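Request:
Um, any thoughts?
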Amino acid sequence: MIEALQFEFIQHALIAGILVSLTAGIIGSLIVVNRMVFLAGGIAHASYGGIGLAVFFGLPIFLGASLFAVAAALLIATLTLHKRHRIDTFIGLIWAVGMAIGVIFIDITPGYNVDLMSYLFGSILAVSTEDLYFMGGLLSVILLVIVFYYRDILAVSYDSEYAALRGVNVRFFYTLILILAALTVVVSIKVVGLILVIAMLTIPVYIAEKLSNSLFSMMFISGGVATLFTLTGLWFSYTYNLTSGASIILVSAVSLGLFLLLYRGK
């Protein structure tokens, strides 16, 4: 694969893979500890509505998907802040409605034949320079949020009632986590597609959880593990001419299986 590094699209794919993996590792940890795994799939599928709207109105796909995903996250935050036990119900509804909106708007777009596969299973080889700026900017924002608000996020994630008693603005941080998760889901769609995004956000976190003793270490171990899986998956897909998103998830799943065998043996 070394000879392929001379091509710009391969360089972009590698950079995108690293940026998204680090982002997914950090936010995936928050999704897991807040028990919002279903949220990732819900927002991923709901964001398809933003893709449909972007196609219909001639807007950048990333912009449409991001705005729609953030709107879905804000709606979920409003509906579930004090009813977290009902979050699956609301996410399922938003999931279905978002997908339906996307399909309808794509259907009524004159003369447009969308490549559904690129959104379902990712199109990392089609990452543009603008996409990289968006991914890098999102990772920078997430790192700043973690550095400045780590204690508050930790408190909200593990015991929101205790956090409220301490004076932490639970509503703000709960909503912030959802918004960052929504944007992470959108950039992850570019790498592995909306069908496989849950696996990218959870498999590295599961491994990191076993190897860490704090939320902070879990975030960055999972980011490193996700990066390793992504780069290995890209090499695998390039070598055997396979779909990159599916290859990344396959590598992740096989690695998880091997990890569980080794970990259980200790």
Observations:
- The domain at 2-260 is CATH 1.10.3470.10 (ABC transporter involved in vitamin B12 uptake, BtuC).
